[in-house]
Amino acid sequence: MVSLDAPLISNLDVWINIALIKEYHQNLPRAEAEHLVFAYLRRYGMENTAYKRNPALTNRERFCVMLLRAAMVADAVIVIDKPFTIIPDLKDASFIDEAIKTGDDLFDECHIFDYTWNKERYRMNDAY
What we know:
This protein has one domain. By secondary structure, the chain is mainly alpha-helical. A two-stranded parallel ribbon has the order 1-2. Helix 1 packs across helix 2 and helix 1 packs parallel to helix 3. Helix content is 41%, strand content 8%.
């Protein structure tokens, strides 16, 4: 889940927030998990955020880190809950779409839940 209701662990570096799932659920050694996370951060051009903590991230960086963390679950079905509350300065969903596409090989499905009044920001006519 990518949501403000499931925040990053504030006293851990970005790379550890992402790696924890692989370490605990798949018993991936820490060094391997770190290497893997850096490769994923590189996709987003965010290697420089690896040793930052949540309060030091921009809203866009935080969103991408939360997305990567959610994608670490095996056979992940990602739910993004109200992304414009995570990145309130966005005018439309272009950044969100690009972030999802950048990591779309890491998860099985991705669903966005948002208020219907935001449907124009997604360039949609048929929001449910």
